[in-house]
Amino acid sequence: xxxxxxxxxxxxxxxxxxxxxxxxxxxxxxxxxxxxxxxxxxxxxxxxxxxxxxxxxxxxxxxxxxxxxxxxxxxxxxxxxxxxxxxxxxxxxxxxxxxxxxxxxxxxxxxxxxxxxxxxxxxxxxxxxxxxxxxxxxxxxxxxxxxxxxxxxxxxxxxxxxxxxxxxxxxxxxxxxxxxxxxxxxxxxxxxxxxxxxxxxxxxxxxxxxxxxxxxxxxxxxxxxxxxxxxxxxxxxxxxxxxxxxxxxxxxxxxxxxxxxxxxxxxxxxxxxxxxxxxxxxxxxxxxxxxxxxxxxxxxxxxxxxxxxxxxxxxxxxxxxxxxxxxxxxxxxxxxxxxxxxxxxxxxxxxxxxxxxxxxxxxxxxxxxxxxxxxxxxxxxxxxxxxxxxxxxxxxxxxxxxxxxxxxxxxxxxxxxxxxxxxxxxxxxxxxxxxxxxxxxxxxxxxxxxxxxxxxxxxxxxxxxxxxxxxxxxxxxxxxxxxxxxxxxxxxxxxxxxxxxxxx
Length: 504
Ligand SMILES: Cc1cc2nc3c(=O)[nH]c(=O)nc-3n(C[C@H](O)[C@H](O)[C@H](O)COP(=O)(O)OP(=O)(O)OC[C@H]3O[C@@H](n4cnc5c(N)ncnc54)[C@H](O)[C@@H]3O)c2cc1C
Description:
alpha+beta
C-alpha cells in the first residue's frame, strides 16, 4: 500500500509548526496543512515560558525569538480610587542559573513567534500548505486516508499517521468523537491588537484593579508598536471592536479621556472554558495543543503547553516510523494529559486571582519543573543525588577536552538520545541513535568547576540517559549497564539488538 507521506499534520499554529520542525530536522516526511489562506495575525499567546525557550534552543531558533521579542514590563495597577502601584509580573525578579539558562518569560506576540517558526521550517525545506482544509478521514490498521478541501478542489492524502493540531474547536477531535469535558467559566473577554495614544510603553497598564467586571489591561507588545487590549465583557451581546468602540470602552472604564485607539490590527471576542480531552489518541490519529485542552489565558500557558505536546510526540512518531515498537506512542497521552490537567487548574486559579487583582506568576507558570516521573519511559529506581528519571535534564557549563567552552544543552541539541557517563572506567560500544559522552579527566568533556556534578548530583561511574526531548530516562551504574540499557532502549529505539551492549 503506498503512502503520500508519513505524517499528516492538520493546523499550522504553534503546535503544528513545532511538530513539523521536529519531523523536518529528523528527515521524516510530513504534510502540514492549514485551512486559513494567510498566517494568523493576532497576538493571543504572547508569553513564552523558559521551558519553551529551551525547546526553541533545541529546535534552532531561540535567539531569533529573543531578538524579535523582549522582557515583560512591570505591571502598573490602577485602583478605582485613582492610586496605582507598580509591581513585577513574577513573584520576584528571576535570574538565569547555570542549570536554567532561561529564567523569565519572554514576550513575543503569537503572530511573530509563528513567523519565526515558519522561517525555521523553511530553512529545513518545508512550508505549511495554506488554504488546505482537512474535511474528513478514515483509518485502518496501516494508515489514515484523509480528504482535503481547498481552492483547487478536493483531494485525498494517504498518511501513516494523522495529528490534529487544529485548535480548540478541533475537527479531528470531533471526528474521533473524543469527549471534551470541563467547564464554561462564565467569563467572556475581548482581546485586540491596537495602535493607541495616551499611554507609555514602559509598563503593562491594568485598570480597575480588583473590579472583575470592569477591568481593562493594556500591554505594550514587545517587538512591535502595538498594544494588546484585554477586557472582560458581558456574556451576551455585540461588542464594538472598532477604534472608536475601544476608545469609548477604555474611557468608560478608566475615566481617562486622553487614551485614544487609532487603529485595530486584529481583535477577537471569546468565552473562557477549561476543558480537557478524554483521549489524545485513537489508533493512528492524535490530537495535540488546544485541540486537546482549552483554558483561560491567565498565566500564559496555552501556546507553551501546545509546543510541548508536539515536542513530546515528534520523536516518538519518528522512532516508531523507523521501526520502534508502536506501544511507545501510548506514552504520549500518558505523559502529556496529566500535565494539561494540572495546567487547567493553574490557569483557572490564576484567572480568579487576576479578577481580584492579586495575580502573580510564580515558578510553576515557568514550566521548568514539569516532568514525567512515574511514566513508563522513566526507568524505575533511577535516582541521582539531585535528579531522577522523568525530570528535566538540567543544563551545565563544561569544557571540551580540545579546550572549548560548551554546555550540556549543546551536547543534547539534536534528535539523538544522550548517554552521559561521569568518570566511567569503560564505555559501551556505539548504539545507533545514542550519543555517548563521557565526562572527567581524560574524557571528552571536562567538568572543571563541578557544575555537572552539582546539577545532577551524579557520582563517578554513574550514567545518565537523556531522551531526545531533554528529560532523564534513567540513571544507571556501570555494573550491568549494558543489559539495563538494552532492555530500556528496546522499547524506544528502532532497533537495539539485545547483545549490542551485553559485553560493556
Ligand atoms: C487572549 C489570549 C491570550 C493568550 N495568551 C497566551 C500566553 O501568553 N501564553 C500562551 O502560552 N498561550 C496563550 N494563549 C493561548 C494560545 O493562543 C493557544 O494555546 C495556542 O494558540 C494553541 O496553539 P495550537 O497550535 O494548539 O492551536 P491554534 O493556534 O488554534 O492553531 C490551530 C490551527 O489549526 C487550523 N485548523 C483548524 N481546523 C483545521 C482544518 N480542518 N484543516 C486545516 N487547518 C485547520 C486553524 O486555522 C489554526 O491555524 C492565549 C490565548 C488567548 C485567547
